[in-house]
Amino acid sequence: MMKQRRGLGKGLGTLLPDKEEVKEEKIVTDELSAHISVDSIDVNPFQPRTHFDEEALQELSESIRIQGIIQPITVRQIDGGRYQLISGERRLQASKLANLKKIPAYIRTADEQQMLEMALIENIQRENLNALEVALSYQRLMTECNLKQEELGERVGKKRSTVNNYLRLLKLPAEVQQGLQGNLIGMGHARALLGLEDDKAMEKLYRKTVNEQLSVRKVEELVRAMQMGGDEEPKPKKVSEIRREMLDLQERLAGWFGTKVLVKADAKNKGEIKIPFKSKEELETLLNRLKK
Question: Do 116 and 192 belong to one domain?
């Protein structure tokens, strides 16, 4: 977990060319791909995903065992007849679980910066990264590939506002970031918590959100209440205040309709309005009044 605080429009086609000449003895390859030994593939040091669901990985392994790999992984050739993974870590791990000896792969030429871009963008577009992993990937693309927010938005096919919303998640306290990464809260909860400037207040409301399984809307309400008065929960009105408000409303409605009106409400503002009438003529008078 990175302890960070406060801080394709072009498509993969521009980063991953369709054809690449690869010179490799002992490997029979066409213009696009080859089958290479699983043991000859080194992990991608730029892999943005930090967690893989074990159950989902086992399911993918079973699928590969039965049907094989439909989408080849992407690698680059390095020294000593070995390869370095660019994208497809889940497929590689699942293939190892399925005891495959060789795996289909696209072999590309790429320097380290291109590897970083390809790995991050491929994962952002094609993997279910959680919100914090997406935010960290965006930050890496900006800092390590010297991209501005507008350029990053073009690369990943997102609006600048969307990119900014993800980057703001990195301003959350470490405890809240961990909860977001562990799916204890969603991005909606996290964005609502960012409405509080104080880290302690964020952490306190975060714990309440997790413990009580609060909805995003409820967290937003609590944040607004804390912004206005400093209380987590809006204080309920006293019975006398509610009664006084209802009497005032009753008088105004009675004056409007020209007849007696009864208004009842509880502390949660649930209630009813009664307008009695004694004849058809009085009812028609009330209905005509409502039309005005």
Answer: no
Query: pLDDT tens for residues 147-162?
Result: 888 888 887 788 888 8
Q: Is residue 218 scored above 90 in pLDDT?
A: yes
Instruction: CATH number of the domain at 55, please.
Output: 3.90.1530.30
The tokens for 234 are: 């809006």
Question: Would you state the pLDDT for residue 183?
Answer: 86
Domain span holding position 286: 239-291
Question: How confident is residue 10, by pLDDT bands cut at 50, 70 and 90?
Answer: very low
89 given a catalytic annotation: yes
194-199 contacts, C-beta under 8 A, 24 or more apart: 194/168, 194/169, 195/220, 195/223, 195/224, 195/227, 196/223, 196/226, 196/227, 199/173
Residue 66 domain-assigned? yes
- Determine the Cα–Cα distance for residues 90 and 238; give it in Å rounded to an integer: 58
Active-site pick, 55, 89, 251, 282:
89
Structure confidence by residue, pLDDT tens digits, 261-289: 777 777 667 778 888 887 887 777 777 77
- Please indicate, yes or no, whether the overall pTM of this predicted structure exceeds 0.85: no
Q: Strands across the sheet with 83-87, in order?
A: 33-37, 102-108, 73-77, 83-87, 41-42
Q: How far is CA 34 from CA 105, 108, 210, in A?
A: 5, 11, 48
